[in-house]
Amino acid sequence: MRLLGSALAVLVVVVTLRAGQSQPTPSSVRDAREEAYRANNSGVAALERYDYKSAAAFFRDALRLDPSIAFARLNLAIALHYDGDPESALKEALAAAKALSREPRAWFVAGLAARAAANDVEALTAFEQVLKLDPSDVATRINIGQVHLENGRYAEAIDHLSKAAAVESFNATAAYGFATALLRARRTAEGQAAMARFQVLRDAPYAITYAAAYLQQGRYAEAIVSTGAEPQLVDARMPAVRFADVTAEALPGAQLGESTSVTLNDIDADGDVDLLVSGPSGTRLFRRAGASWRAVATPTSRGPTTGTIVADYDNDGRADVLVLGSRGVSLWHQLAGGAFEEATIKASLEEAAGGHTAAWGDLDHDGDVDFITAGEGAAQAWRNNGNGTFTRFPASTGLDVSAGAAAALVPTDFDAGRDIDVMIVGSGGAALLKNMREGRFENVAARSGFRKGAYQAMATADLDADGRPDFFFGRPGAVGLFVTSDGSASFKFTDAPTATTGALAAQLIDYDSDGVIDLVTFGAGGLRVLRNTGNAWADASTDARLPQEPCTGGCALASADVDDDGDIDLVTSGGGNVRVWRNEGPPTRTMTVRLSARVSNRSAIGARIDMRAGSLLRRFEASSATPSAGPADIVFGLGRRRADVVRVVWPSGIVQAENAPASRGQQRQRLDIVELDRKPSSCPYLFTWNGERFEFIGDFLGGGEMGYWLAPGVRNVPDPEEFVRIRGDQLKTRDGRYELRVTNELEEAVFVDRLSLIAVT
To answer: Is 361 within 8 Å of 409 (Cβ atoms)?
Structure first.
């Protein structure tokens, strides 16, 4: 919806920072740059709170501290644009484009500002520059199409809008623009068909609709921050980090039996991680109590178990456990007192297949977690019905694919499309399932550059902090493979160092808490750690005192801050034995984040968390998979920096930025974030009495806005009618009457001539 005013006010104190001396030392220059990065981070956080004036002030402060940070000028242009100063925004965007000639964002923002300033010629010039750098960008095609449409060039509008709709069939803005262009070009039959398609799409939960607000005009209208992974920012010296075998202390007297899988998760929500161990004799649960784990009543499965995944499947605030077995799965529901009861039959999962790997994820984006399993044959995906039961996704969904004997899978947003995709690897190669947002997935592995080959391990993290996940794959008898996003929908493939040969398990973690992601592997080469120095990988295994005895079977690896001291520890299973490795590095600054979802699935699986600290940007994607795809908790290493801002993109789509708490001289910072939507709405809300309570139906009247300028002297024509679907179960009589309530969110003046109910049978 278009915002014609704002009722959101956020008080931000702008601190003026002194520059260095007239002849600065290298350290003073470095400190000034870090302060500039921090000011930029604060500006981006203000943007995400829709406080554009404060954002502009922060970006100006960053430029004063270090004028060479060109992306701060681009960010200033974004803030000015959304604050309603298009002429100044255009000036800053064009200046940024000169310094960032290969950055599409600068030209895109220049195009937006030019459109807002009614300078269509300048806007088209800028948007055409974006297409030269990224011909597939949908938002750019839409903007070009809209400019042509407003100027009566219908053929050109149809060309660009049809291409946008073809790339993103779920984009309601592209669909509406395309239909409108066809109708105005008097291609009536085609236009009516396209408009019918839009009418279906506009009510679909997976649809994307652009609006004139920050974060709602495409990826190139989003601000930029530094990553901290640039080689000049990484200390190449080997850190004094050691791992100590503390199995006897962590699992005193435990009778584990043979094990093939380990899972770490805070199952009892007491702030520390618990341990699940699976193997031929079943699955055992160990709860953390002080410095050790103690065995408790155990979820189990029919026959041998191969792994576990943990999530709150019924959104009751307690974590539940799905146990993967050779004969199927078993679902264990956690009760209020912490005990578990089996819910497999109650959840209609008797026919669910087991396998070697599984993961939870909100595959249909309805606010609860679904799951997918894979083994020797095709994968199986099961939809959460929201009532404690599951139904298998139909074959038409496209999730029933095979990667040979599957080794690992993880739901992840590989293309930064704000939806859940799925990556599966195995003996037959990789299957990359792109979410098409129409109730189906498409395997785009070949299109994304994957070639045939066998894989036996996978870990994922955003290595270059570009907002898209990267991967490490273990390969039988060969070095591992780094699979890094190229910034679009494809990947770059790079052989990993020799130490990764034959890796059977892997984790991408920041083992030395310097803010840069490192690699730990377990397999034929033993337990190895490779340190990321920005442009190379250094084998730190000997310095870290990790054993290098080969693991040839039953190898598993999980990571978390087991002892709650701010750094990442390891738990391994190899040769049938579980071992716990405590990270004994020197004290460093870290930030621990804990999420509490309110609208999204309660486990916040699929949430993407950004932490900004001066020049550093770290990104984390919450997951629950077996084998583990990443750390079990959210711990960010800061090096010498202080955390500035933590940003969460919740599975619900809510974007939330929170300032980091003051460190007060402490090495560790903690931040608890409760899901909160600060974005204002401009449209009225409709509620109905459903027999028990008033139920939220949705917002409406979006097409009826008045007074919007399309061009100088030309205003929009509002749509005077709107139909809102109300299901039969959403509207019940109350004392013989149907009761509906409309609330005004006070962003706009609302005019309603007539409201009526129409029964459709």
So the answer is: no
